[in-house]
Structures are given as structure tokens and as C-alpha cells.
Amino acid sequence: MDLAQNLISGVAVGCIYALAALGFVLIYKSSRVINFANGQLIAIGAFLAYALAVWVGLPVLLAMLLAMLLTAGLGFLVERFFLRRLVGQPIISVIMVTIGLASVLDGLMYLTPFGSGNFTFPQFLPPGGLNLGGVSISYPQLLAIGFTVVFLLIFGWFFQRSILGIAMRAVADDQMASMSLGVSVEKVFALAWAVAGLAAASAGIVVGAVSGLNQDGLIAIGLAVFPAVILGGLDSVPGAVVGGIVIGILQSLSTAYLDGLLAQVGLVGGGSQYAVPFVVLLIMLWFKPHGLFGTEEIERV
């Protein structure tokens, strides 16, 4: 029974990682750029929801929806004013811009009341949760799982069936060829950043519902999902979900079992959940560099 409970907890945490990983995947899938400001977008989305709910007084669910839309707008503006001039330039230039952007957003948030301290959303979910055969699932955990399923279905359909989704895949494959065929690379990039902001805000909101809001903790999630992204594949939406859930389960099991085992053999117990994902990352890079579902590219020489 303890194993089942740990698995459920791991799946719930993994769903949060999956939502955060979607932000990486969406931008990389369209532009081959890794967004190092993803953690900042997660934090901004969560704090916007809190501000709208607590300071403005909106219903919590409406505040969360508006926060997701506002963060999507922020992603659009970031692309419009900071990244659009870099279309066609070396990828490293864009990556360095995202690193600088992360530092700027980080500093600006520290100037707000959210820069230090912990915050909690007003109660909007019923207390307790569901009990299935002795395994408890809290309502915040169900919220995390539900968000992930909805986003997976929407993004899966978007990239496979919609014209804009196919255009984003084409731009990711070859920017210059896509431009020659009439695809607006600028619009594709702007859309990718907007949708990535939406996914990041949803991850921050779920984290706030599950464990409260703290700037450092929220930003840390943006980098903690790297193992999940690499495991699933940098350009795979389903891979982001699978990778996030696998990493979440590994962290849950390592906390429950590995920490105690290390303590028994005389080693300092605790903290294995932070090391295990990166061990998995190294193993994955050794045997399957493109991840479980990533696209393997063969270039002519």
C-alpha cells in the first residue's frame, strides 16, 4: 500500500514537472532554442494568479485563468521585443538572451512583495481528497493530473492537426526553407512563446495549489525539469509528459526508500531525490541522446 501511495504522489509531482517541461518543448520544437527563463515565467504566472485573487478580489478560478492569459501575453511580448531581431541568427545568441532575460525577471520580482516570503492561494478546493482502495489522492494532486491531461490532449492535437502547429514543426526543421514557402517565422515564434507562457503559468498555479508560493521554489522548478525534458525528448510533447511523470515517480520512490537505505549503511540520509533525476539524465544521454520520443536527425556530410 505504501508503494501505491508513493507512486500516486510521484505521478502528481511528475504532472507538475510535465506542465513545466511543456514550456521548454514548445519553444524548442518551433525554434530549437532552450528557454532558460522558463522558471521565471512559472513564478510570474503563479504570482499573477495570487495577486488577482487576493489583491483584486476576483474568484480564484477566474484569477487563475486571467493569469494564464496574461503570462501568455508576456511570452508574446518577450518574443516581440527581445527575440524577433534574432530570427536567422546563431542559436547561441538567442539562448544567451533567454539567460539574460531570466536574470532581469528574477531581479524585478525581488523588487515586488513576492520577492521574499511564502504565500498561499485562498481555499478553492474541497478539503481532503479521494480514497481508492486505501490510496489517498488529494484534490490538489487531482488538479495537477487533470491540467496535464488537458494540456497533453490540446497540444497533441495542435501539433498534429492544426495548420499553425504544422507550421511550427516546419519552422523547427528549417527556418529558411519555411520562410521561402511563405511561413511567417516571426508569427510562429511569437505563438510558441505565448503558448509556453500559458503552460508555465499553469505549472506555477498547480504548484501554488499543492505546496504554496515561493519565488525561489517556483524558479527552481524551471531548471529541475531538465532531466524530464531530456528523458522524454526535447521536441516531443508526449515525451515531456512521460519524462515528467517518470522523474516524479523516481523522486518519490528515492525519498521513500533510498534515503532510509543510505542512512542504514552509515551515509547521510536525505536529498537523494535531487540526485536521482540527473543520474537518469546521464544514463539517458549515454544510451539514447535524443530521449525516449525525441526526433533523431541524420545530417548529410
Verbal overview:
The chain has 301 residues and is mainly alpha-helical. It has one domain (2-287): ABC transporter involved in vitamin B12 uptake, BtuC, CATH 1.10.3470. The protein is 73% helix and 3% strand. It contains 12 helices and 2 strands; from the N terminus they run ααααββαααααααα. A two-stranded antiparallel sheet has the order 1-2. Strand 1 (129-132) and strand 2 (135-138) form a beta hairpin. The longest helix is centred in the first third of the chain and has 30 residues, at 2-31. The chain is globular.
Brief overview, please?
This protein has helices spanning 2-31, 38-55, 60-83, 91-110, 139-161, 163-173, 175-180, 185-211, 215-224, 226-232, 237-264, 272-287; strands spanning 129-132, 135-138.
Based on CA atoms alone, the radius of gyration comes out at: 19 Å
Instruction: Quickly count the helices.
Output: 12
How many domains comprise the coordinates? Answer: 1
N-end to C-end Cα span: 55 Å
* CATH C-level: Mainly Alpha
The total beta strand count reads: 2
Write the H/E string, N to C: HHHHEEHHHHHHHH
